[in-house]
Amino acid sequence: MSDHAHPTSELQEISRRLQVAMEIQWILRDESGLSPVAALKRAAESRVVPAAAPRRPSPAARVEAASSPSSAAPPPAATVIQPWQNDPARFASLDELHETYQACLRCELGKTRKNFVFGVGSPKARVMFIGEAPGRDEDLQGEPFVGAAGQLLTKILGAVDFKREDVYIANILKCRPPGNRDPQPEEIAACEPILRRQIELIQPLVLCTLGAFAARTMLGVNSGISRLRGRVHDYRGIPLVPTYHPAALLRNASWKRPTWEDVQLLRREYDRLAKTES
Ligand code: SF4
User: How many angstroms separate the CA atoms of 167 and 41, rounded?
Assistant: First the structure.
């Protein structure tokens, strides 16, 4: 069959691709002010952009790694975690918790991170946002949500009258998974107690998870974000409102409206609880 057997369908395909490119350009310029290429690069660094499936080393590679001189070498003394540090619940302040775990090696991610990304915001925040894990920008700067997705989060907060400095923002994992791969169960198990203690110390009135991974981890369920969002859940007695990750909105404009509905729900829940508290 000739290459030119279906000129009409080829033209339709070219037209469709042009349309997609124009939509992406509009969405990304609208939200981030970056060029489409720059914004896509930034979005690719954030946690919600689908990452390559985690690649586990083969048994042979693991044996080789375990027997190599570099892996056999002990970590630097400053990064060895002491047995008493294995219980985040014993720390009485955020500063103490931060200081102790910034050298954490409770999981493999401690060996590859550039910076431990503890969290940012007011220690007395009444609203706490929780994402998945640091991306490239966060790993470099040691602060969560600082890239294009972080700028969008700040805008979203402002739209419902929250200031970034008045809330608290953290991730489930405090260290970046290499290549932004998916967090592994053992990493979540190792890191989640630190987040739990952060929540206990901050005592927010309401929590908001950003993205499917954070919602599923916090709620202990396996549902998709479209099923979880739009209502108030419970995390250890604290109301929790799940919504999309800001990076997802940079990729898909159709998630802007449900996100707007979710943050309005979050605001209403906060106002209701703040009223009963005062
Ligand atoms: S991800 Fe969490 S548990 Fe793992 S090394 Fe970093 S701080 Fe420690």
Answer: 28
- Residue nearest to ligand 1 atom 2, measured at CA: 191
Q: How many CB atoms lie within 10 A of CB 146?
A: 20
Q: Which residues, 6+ apart, have CB-to-CB distance to 158 below 8 Å?
A: none
Tokens of 209: 């998870």
Lateral strand order in the sheet of 238-243: 120-121, 168-171, 127-131, 206-210, 238-243, 233-235
And the tokens for 51? 């990452």
Pocket-forming residues, ligand 1, beta carbon under 6 Å: 101, 104-107, 109-110, 116, 173-175, 187, 190-191
> Which positions of the chain have pLDDT values less than 50?
1-5, 19-79
| Tokens 């108030």 belong to residue | 232
Residue 207's DSSP bridge partners are: 128, 240
Instruction: Please choose from 85, 105, 118 the residue to mutate so as to test ligand 1's pocket, defined by most ligand atoms within 8 A of CB.
Output: 105
Measured CA to CA, the distance from residue 105 to residue 151 in angstroms comes to 30
- Ligand 1 center to residue 124 CA distance, Å? 24
**Token representation of residue 70:** 């570099």
b/e code 129-143 from CB counts within 10 Å (16+ = b): bbbbbbbbbbbbebb
For 43-88, the pLDDT digits (tens) are: 444 443 333 333 333 333 333 333 333 333 344 434 455 555 567 7
* In CATH, 65-277 is 3.40.50.300: no
Domain residue spans in the chain? Answer: 65-277
Question: Rounded to whole angstroms, how far apart are CA atoms 78 and 65?
Answer: 23
| CA 57 – CA 65 distance, rounded (Å) | 9
